[in-house]
Amino acid sequence: QVQLVESGGGLVQPGGSLRLSCVASGSIFAMYGMGWYRQAPGKQRELVAVIFSSSSTNYNDSVKDRFTITRDNAKNTVYLQMNSLKPEDTAVYYCYARARAIGVPTRDYWGQGTQVTVSS
């Protein structure tokens, strides 16, 4: 199996920055797409950004030009640099990975979530 552990969430003022990290570990055979979703209170979980093994990326329109997703394949780690944060970015951010573990078919994995709060 694959485990995802996020870090980097917290409280930040509007206009501030945060960097989220997510490390994948376990009996990893291959990592495919990695990314971030978020869920605000009373709302559905939504895609924030995803980066594929080809390094191509896809962003939610609401975060384009403010957030940047990158990955370090050697470390099985994905990062989300969040700049110019707005109160509406407040949510629990979940790391996501599509991966194949040794002896396990390819499937999606999720982290436990990290809280990001943007408030003055």
How would you describe this structure to a colleague?
With 120 residues, this protein is mostly beta strands. It is built from no helices and 11 strands. Strands 2, 4, 5, 6, 9, 10 and 11 form a 7-stranded mixed β-sheet that branches. Strand 5 and strand 6 (57-59) form a beta hairpin.
Tell me the series of helices and strands, N- to C-terminal: EEEEEEEEEEE
Stretches where pLDDT is under 50 for at least 5 consecutive residues are: none
Number of helices: 0
Main sheet summary: 7 strands, mixed
Structure classification:
mainly beta
- Quick one: overall form? elongated
Task: List its salient traits.
single chain, 120 residues, mainly beta, seven-stranded mixed β-sheet, four-stranded antiparallel β-sheet, elongated
Short overview:
It contains no helices and eleven strands. With 120 residues, it is mostly beta strands.
SSE topology sketch:
Layout: E1 2-7, E2 10-12, E3 18-26, E4 28-39, E5 46-51, E6 57-59, E7 67-72, E8 77-82, E9 91-101, E10 107-110, E11 114-118
Parallel strand pairs: 2-11
Antiparallel strand pairs: 1-3, 3-8, 4-5, 4-9, 5-6, 7-8, 9-10, 9-11
